[in-house]
Amino acid sequence: MPKKNFDLQAVKGTHDILPQDQFIWEKIRKEIREVAEIYSFSRIDTPILENLDLFKRGVGEATDIVEKQMFVLTTKGGDKLVLRPEGTSAVARAYAQHGLSHLSQPLKVYYEGPFFRYENPQAGRYRQFHQVGFEVIGGENDPIYDVQVMLAALRLLESVKLKNLTIHINSIGCKVCRPIYKKHLLSYYKNKKKDICKDCNRRMTQNPLRLLDCKEDKCEQAKKGAPNIIDDLCSVCRKHFKGVLEYAEELKLPYQVDPFIVRGLDYYSRTVFEIFMEETSQSGEKITGPALGGGGRYDFLFESLGLKSTSAVGAGLGMDRIVDVIKSNKINIPVKQKNKVFLIVIGIEAKKKGLELMEEFIEAGINISESMGKNSLGAQLGSADKAGASLALILGQKEVFKESIIIRDMKTGVQETVLLKKVVAEIKKRI
Predict the structure, then answer these.
(1) Model confidence over 144-200: pLDDT tens digits?
(2) Contacting residues for 54 by C-beta, under 8 A, at least 6 apart
(3) In what side-by-side order are the strands of the sheet with 165-171?
(4) Whole-angstrom distance between the N-terminal and C-terminal Cα of the chain?
(5) 301 and 348 share a domain?
(6) For residue 204, is it within any domain?
(7) Which of 217, 298, 293, 231 has its CA nearest to residue 259?
(8) How far is residue 226's CA from residue 221's CA, in Å, rounded to a whole number?
(9) At what angle do helices 235-250 and 143-159 cross, to 10 degrees?
């Protein structure tokens, strides 16, 4: 029986990163490494697969991530695993498992890689997405670290030429003052059940702070008169928040206090923030674009995992969204210089000699391209032109016999013959 046709497409919510976009991704990864080095973050990599309970306990069972967005699988042994939906809980698990608290504190680590959430795909948001994170774990609960992770995230965005950036900062308090605010918030929403979406009605009982995070139009309108959590902060949280803003002022960070930034995960406490890029609409109006990243303090995460209370703060940035913004704003990212030299070989003996010659160029630190599978001179010259080569080296049977090679200027078409043993030195002079 003939095989049934199938949809030859990437899985919904995933996307291929094609060769023509790789230079943008490589630029971002290069800047991640440089920013991490400048601010003393060491690399950490955690597995893509983690235990389901890690995120149920860490992120929170009433969050959208745990309720709706995790890819869960059961192993043959019956273990419940999940494709990691975020990086912070995994880093906390690694910190505890490997006794990293015995290292100099605070421990500053960064990571980048793929993460997975089952949600409706849209611009800059995928079911398999790529994220970079900066985490500061252990040490004192000092607001200076809150600002350091903001700074690292901001400098990374600036390094890829993103402009008009603003950090929206808020405090969501702690176990002492947050319950008081929740009561005031629920009191405000008590008579607004008809004015908010179905999800927000559910959040009123499960996760009230998420009422401020909803992006539905009617919910955006409903929250405009909501009480401000800053008014309910306890003295300790108020002092911490004041310290964050003072450090931000000292560094002249582009920030604004935003009482509607709450972040959606249970482990956050005190400082939360998101970074936005101001854009221009078709009518010329300045508007706030989608969040490029965010984060905050998560001093309660380790407790929720049954561990010793540990101070921690972090930031995460969506790499896919950064790439989309770079492309949509036509931001010029320098392309790595293509190989300037292209080797053309005609005939079996020339191919054999060509392989040896390529190794000589590589040992000399000169990148060289080829399309030796093509037999004709014209086809290989066409490949050299497409590759953007400035010089072509032409090696035929005659040249092999005479131990020489032709150097062709691809722009002018001018050719000259040199000895094979001198060609590497000659090319070094010209590139």
Answers:
(1) 999 999 999 999 999 999 999 999 999 999 989 999 999 998 888 888 888 888 888
(2) 82, 89, 90, 93, 305
(3) 42-43, 107-116, 128-137, 312-318, 286-297, 269-280, 165-171, 255-257
(4) 59
(5) no
(6) no
(7) 231
(8) 10
(9) 40
Q: How far is CA 391 from CA 113, 305, 394, in A?
A: 38, 61, 10
Domain CATH number, residue 400:
3.40.50.800
The predicted model scores a pTM of 0.83
What are phi and psi for residue 324, nearest 5 degrees?
-60, -40
- Can you tell me which residue has the tokens 């979406």? 197
| Amino acid type, 392 | A
Report the C-alpha gap between 121 and 381 in whole angstroms: 43
Task: Read off the tokens for 251.
Answer: 């560094």
What's the domain range around 48? 19-177+233-328
Contact 84, 90 (CB under 8 A): yes
| Pair 145, 106: CB distance under 8 Å | yes
143-159 and 22-38 are packed helices; what angle lies between their axes, rounded to 10 degrees? 150
4: DSSP letter: P
> Do 320 and 347 fall into the same domain?
no
* Number of domains the chain is built from: 2
Q: Are residues 173 and 54 in the same domain?
A: yes
